[in-house]
């Protein structure tokens, strides 16, 4: 009996596979019949669309009685003799359609009855409301534009397997309305950022992705070989050093939104390729970047979400009130009671780290250990928008020192929901100091830090020509989209996240 029960799931699975195989066979037979009859849908090259589904529903009072042409995918079809109902889905959403033999003709209706869920059609008809009050289209013409040879997941149950959702985003977008809305909103977020910065006098630019020196961030780059020049090159990890060259060149306000690549792990917050925006503004400092960031986040939330108070998980994030501002030392003191201003040196900091069971490396100094304390005890508590300022110089190789506290720099990171949202500096424009910082990074690299920067001689040459006082900042666009769409993982806001390849089936 137990053996029968164990075999039952396998039997059911085999039967299911056989049923699916038969359904797929029937769909291909339908296509072959259409092609034999000279009605190959794949020969159709265009269809004139006059309206989209949401437009019709949102403006129904003005649209009722008018003739429209829509195109999209059949998501449901209920045949009831001489009349049928169904739903068609386009980029904006879906709408019900009504098909009757007397309206579209006996031959066309017979062909329509053979259409499958997932087929792409164009339909022309009159906008009307059914007896039950449903906003609908009464079809007078229908054209099969593409035959679906696969079977969509049932829309009622949705596509819930996350691995399949990420690998087959095209299917995910079809059957999960909220996923489609997330990516529509993502596009709006990026266009709104562009509009805001353009209105502030910023100029959008493009800089190289393939570089000989991948600097500007603490990250391990991807490496490849450029055959034409017989040189090893890297994929950029940051946009910073080229954008600063443009500030040197006299372009006073520049920004770039683009892909960067970091050879690191995958988790809910990280993907090896992601969208970064960096901007640089001459004649301002990190305080100016804080003001710009706060105003921009508020503006984008209001324009895209219609409010500055947005839900994220169990929290309501208030982007409308002034963002809290703390130095890193103040933040660590607030959440641990430890004042690093009173820690005299690296030995004392390491002793404290031992007491608190904070792992560090031999090369780490007092500043590094302050940062480790911040990451361990503070980050997760910063739910509401908080600027954390004045980082140790050891972890900030491209940042201007604080004149009154040279072991620290004019830098901030914005944290929301316990996550870093952006990173900004008063940019280091002293070429002599910058060369020394690069030397320290080279030493860290030699000591085993694979994320340390290497010296960029051309960038140093640019600084020697002269860069004005400058504020700069980098934003993780994907994390901002996660926040404004209430998405728990970065893969939920990337159309095609990085996935481990599946071996080919032979």
TrEMBL record:
MF terms per GO, please? ATP binding; catalytic activity, acting on a protein; lysine-tRNA ligase activity; magnesium ion binding; transferase activity; tRNA binding
Write out the GO cellular component annotations.
cytosol
Q: Which InterPro entries match?
A: Aa-tRNA-synt_II, aa-tRNA-synth_II, aa-tRNA-synth_II/BPL/LPL, Lys-tRNA-ligase_II, Lys-tRNA-ligase_II_N, Lys-tRNA-synth_II_C, NA-bd_OB-fold, NA-bd_OB_tRNA
Q: Which Pfam family would be a valid example here?
A: tRNA_anti-codon
Q: Where in the cell is it found?
A: Cytoplasm
Cofactor note as given: Binds 3 Mg(2+) ions per subunit.
Per UniProt, where does Mg(2+) 2 bind?
420
Query: Which UniProt keywords are given for this protein, alphabetically ordered?
Result: Aminoacyl-tRNA synthetase, ATP-binding, Cytoplasm, Ligase, Magnesium, Metal-binding, Nucleotide-binding, Protein biosynthesis
Alphabetical list of Gene3D superfamilies matching this protein: Bira Bifunctional Protein, Domain 2, Nucleic acid-binding proteins
- Can you state which reaction this protein catalyses? tRNA(Lys) + L-lysine + ATP = L-lysyl-tRNA(Lys) + AMP + diphosphate
Source species, domain of life: Bacteria
Query: What range(s) does the Aminoacyl-transfer RNA synthetases class-II family profile domain occupy?
Result: 186-497
UniProt key word Magnesium: yes
- Establish whether keyword Aminoacyl-tRNA synthetase is in the entry: yes
EC code: 6.1.1.6
EC main group = ligase
* Cofactor(s) listed in the protein's UniProt record: Mg(2+)
Q: Which PANTHER family match?
A: LYSINE--TRNA LIGASE, CHLOROPLASTIC_MITOCHONDRIAL (PTHR42918:SF15), LYSYL-TRNA SYNTHETASE (PTHR42918)
Q: Member of which family?
A: Belongs to the class-II aminoacyl-tRNA synthetase family.
Could you tell me what this protein is called? Lysine--tRNA ligase
In its UniProt entry, the species of origin is given as: Parablautia intestinalis
């Amino acid at each position: 009996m137990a053996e029968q029960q164990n075999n039952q799931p396998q039997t059911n699975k085999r039967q299911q596979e056989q049923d699916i195989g038969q359904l797929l066979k029937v769909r291909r037979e339908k296509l072959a019949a259409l092609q034999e009859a000279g009605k190959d849908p794949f020969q159709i090259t265009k269809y004139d669309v006059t309206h989209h589904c949401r437009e019709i529903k949102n403006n129904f009072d003005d649209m009722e009685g008018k003739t429209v042409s829509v195109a999209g995918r059949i998501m449901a079809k209920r045949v009831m003799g001489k009349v049928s109902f169904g739903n068609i889905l386009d980029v904006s959403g879906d709408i019900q359609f009504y098909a009757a033999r007397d309206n579209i003709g006996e031959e066309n209706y017979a062909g329509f009855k053979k259409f499958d869920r997932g087929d792409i059609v164009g339909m022309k008809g009159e906008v009307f409301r059914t007896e039950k009050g449903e906003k609908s289209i009464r079809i007078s013409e229908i054209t099969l534009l593409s035959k679906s040879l696969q079977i969509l997941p049932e829309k009622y149950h949705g596509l819930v397997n996350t691995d399949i959702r990420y690998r087959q985003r095209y299917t995910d977008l079809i059957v999960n309305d909220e996923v489609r809305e997330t990516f529509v909103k993502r596009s709006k977020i990026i266009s709104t950022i562009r509009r805001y910065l353009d209105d502030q006098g910023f100029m959008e630019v493009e800089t190289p992705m393939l570089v000989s020196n991948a600097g500007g961030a603490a990250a391990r780059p991807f490496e490849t070989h450029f055959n034409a020049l017989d040189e090893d090159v890297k994929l950029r990890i940051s946009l910073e050093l080229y954008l600063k060259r443009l500030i040197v060149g006299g372009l006073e306000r520049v920004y770039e939104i683009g892909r960067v690549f970091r050879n690191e792990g995958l988790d809910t917050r990280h993907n090896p390729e992601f969208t970064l925006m960096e901007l640089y503004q001459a004649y301002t400092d990190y305080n100016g970047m804080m003001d710009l960031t706060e105003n921009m986040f508020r503006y984008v939330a209001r324009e895209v979400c219609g409010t500055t108070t947005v839900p994220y998980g169990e929290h309501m994030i208030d982007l409308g009130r002034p963002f809290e501002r703390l130095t890193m030392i103040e933040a660590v003191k607030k959440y641990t009671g430890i004042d690093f201003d009173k820690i005299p040196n690296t030995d004392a900091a390491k002793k404290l780290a031992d007491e608190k069971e904070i792992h560090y490396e031999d090369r780490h100094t007092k500043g590094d250990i302050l940062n480790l304390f911040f990451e361990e005890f503070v980050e997760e508590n910063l739910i509401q928008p908080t600027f954390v300022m004045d980082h140790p110089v050891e972890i900030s190789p491209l940042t201007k020192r604080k004149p009154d506290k040279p072991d620290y720099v004019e830098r901030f990171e914005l944290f929301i929901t316990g996550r870093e949202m952006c990173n900004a500096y008063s940019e280091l424009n002293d070429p002599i100091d910058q060369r020394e910082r690069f030397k320290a990074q080279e030493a860290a690299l030699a000591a085993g830090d694979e994320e340390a920067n290497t010296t960029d001689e051309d960038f140093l040459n640019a600084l020697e020509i002269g860069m004005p006082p400058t504020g700069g900042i980098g934003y993780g666009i994907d994390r901002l989209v996660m926040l404004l769409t209430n998405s728990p993982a970065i893969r939920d806001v990337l159309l095609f996240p990085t996935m481990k390849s599946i071996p080919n089936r032979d």
